[in-house]
Design goal:
Elements: H1 4-17, H2 20-25, E1 27-35, E2 46-49, H3 50-60, E3 65-78, E4 81-92, E5 98-110, E6 113-121, H4 123-127, H5 139-147, H6 149-162, H7 164-170, E7 173-174, H8 175-182, H9 189-198, E8 202-205, E9 208-211, H10 213-218, H11 229-243, H12 246-252, H13 266-270, H14 274-298, E10 306-310, H15 316-324, E11 329-334, H16 339-348, E12 355-359, E13 372-376, H17 384-397, E14 403-408, H18 419-431, H19 440-449, E15 453-461, E16 464-470
Parallel strand pairs: 1-6, 10-11, 10-13, 11-12, 13-14
Antiparallel strand pairs: 1-2, 3-4, 4-5, 5-6, 7-9, 8-9, 14-16, 15-16
The structure holds S-adenosylmethionine.
S-adenosylmethionine binds next to helix 14 and strand 11.
Length: 471
């Protein structure tokens, strides 16, 4: 009978011969197979369960190497465990340079079969071979992926439009059932679903497609608190066509919105019809929810008793903040057509007594007074003169000790890291006549000029931060 160390030695020999079937024979059908999360960039990190997943992983894994060969040097056996000390020998695909990355592999066995495998190594050596970026990509791959990134975006946006993730939130489905439910032609449905698997938006197991944890978290329409799909649908319909005109926008400095003229403000275009208005307000709520939840939790609301949300849209912020902090009352200022949709939110949250709407325009009306004034995703819609005017009006409307809170996809002060903030700036070029995004330092400068003191920036979530100033 073979010892545990001999069984494991035989599995390395089988891999070295490329005989995956022979290696699989040495594994328990329920084997757990774990690589460090630092290998996620190549889809290699985390735990696989069962022979099929391990086999799938071995055939699918495609690091940026023409060769990634584990060579065991020493086998240390103790009870049901075998520790293997060795090194990966790698060859970088584009340069043919070779490298050595030491590893320790921990194996556990039961009844002559491997039940657990865990890989320990310094992932930096695997992730960033010389001549590649931090994701392990060669310049050719990096630029190609970026240049064709709109393929990824469009596959996601169309999947959201079609309701793929909402359908799969109900139950996992095979390709044919999913195709029929979505009303797709059979020519490319399977390719579409498998592309979504490669994009890690879907998982596929035993022929059944299901949502990944990420798509389940934010793309299931039945979870209205987390659903990001309304923003993505809006971007697909309004923003995607505009981005086709980025070049003339950059050359002329003029917006490229749906109105067909280059002078109308976004809001004139959207608010002309009830349906686009409703979709826009829903999209804003969907996009703002990350910031709203963070703000509801992290801002010291206990110090204040009233809040005014300027450019409040359908009332997403007020409804969440007032629900979370029952001592607060709130007022939302927005253009008159927004009123009925705001009222629906107040009704839906049982907040009609505490959450009021003020119909008006911040160009012609004073801002409502309250202890806290919030300007969320509002300043970036406008040029610098309007930004300063709004901050001055906020200062006037606040009592001494009152606070203004501004949240945006704030650009980092060095203007090089927050990609979404910098690209949002181009989005503003495309849809507004003077809007632009800005850094925390920019905003603190304008706040100080308007008379605010003790100004600071605090990160909210992902790409978003808030700027706070006190009167
Ligand atoms: C980009 S949305 C931001 C909505 C929300 N605060 C958020 O965080 O998503 C800008 C809001 O400003 C409102 N707005 C535009 N012009 C306005 C004006 N002149 N007076 C008051 N509100 C206005 C729009 O109706 C819209 O609800």
């Amino acid at each position: 009978m073979s010892t545990n160390a001999e069984i494991i030695r035989a599995s390395y020999a089988a891999f070295a011969r490329g005989d995956i079937d022979a290696a699989m024979e040495l594994f328990s059908p329920a084997i757990e197979w774990t690589h460090p999360h630092g290998m996620n960039d190549h889809g290699l990190g985390g735990t696989k369960k069962g022979r099929e997943q391990v086999r799938d992983f071995m055939t699918r894994a495609r690091p940026p190497f023409s060769e990634l060969r584990p060579t065991p040097h020493e086998f240390v056996e103790s009870g049901d465990r075998v520790m293997v000390i060795g090194a990966y020998h790698t060859r970088v695909a584009h340069s043919e340079q070779t490298h050595r990355v030491p590893f320790v592999h921990s194996w556990r066995l039961a009844d002559g079969k491997a039940t657990h495998f865990e890989d320990y190594h310094d992932t930096a050596g695997i992730r960033t071979p010389p001549g590649t970026n931090e994701a392990g990509m060669t310049p050719r791959e990096q630029i190609l992926r970026l240049g064709l990134g709109f393929w990824n975006a469009k596959a996601l946006l169309v999947a959201v439009e079609l309701g793929v993730f909402t359908e799969l939130a109900v139950q996992p489905l095979d390709a044919e059932t999913l195709r029929a439910k979505l009303g797709l032609h059979d020519r490319s449905a399977r390719d579409f679903f498998d592309a979504l698997v490669a994009l890690r938006l879907l998982d596929r197991e035993n022929g059944l497609y299901r949502n990944t944890p990420a798509s389940a978290a934010v793309l299931d329409e039945s979870d209205s608190e987390q659903y990001l799909g309304d923003l993505l649908k809006f971007m697909n319909n309004l923003s995607y066509p505009s981005w086709g005109n980025l070049k003339p926008a950059l050359q002329t400095g003029l917006p490229q919105n749906h109105a067909g003229d280059d002078k109308s403000e976004l809001f004139d275009v959207l608010y002309a019809e009830p349906e686009p208005l409703r979709k826009f307000l829903q999209a804003m709520a969907s996009g703002a929810m990350g910031a709203i939840h963070a703000l509801a939790e992290r801002f010291p609301w206990e110090k204040y008793s009233s809040v005014a949300d300027v450019g409040c849209a359908k009332g997403a912020l007020l409804s969440r903040v007032l629900r979370r902090h029952p001592h607060l009352s709130g007022v939302g200022l927005d253009l008159p057509p927004v009123g009925p949709i705001f009222a629906e939110t107040a009704e839906q949250f049982g907040l009609v007594d505490r959450m009021k709407f003020m119909a008006g325009s911040f160009f012609t009306d004073p801002l409502p007074s309250a202890d806290v004034i919030v300007l969320g995703h509002v300043l970036h819609d406008w040029d610098l003169t309007t930004k300063r005017m709004l901050l001055e009006k906020a200062h006037k409307a606040l009592p001494d000790g009152g606070t203004v809170v501004i949240y945006e996809f704030l650009i980092d002060d060095d203007r090089r890291h927050n990609t979404l903030g910098l690209l949002m700036n181009l989005q503003m070029l495309l849809v507004s006549s003077g809007g632009f995004d800005y850094t925390g330092a920019d905003c603190i400068g304008w706040l100080s000029d308007a008379g605010f003191r003790d100004c600071y920036v605090e990160h909210l979530w992902g790409p978003e931060s808030m700027v706070i100033g006190t009167k």
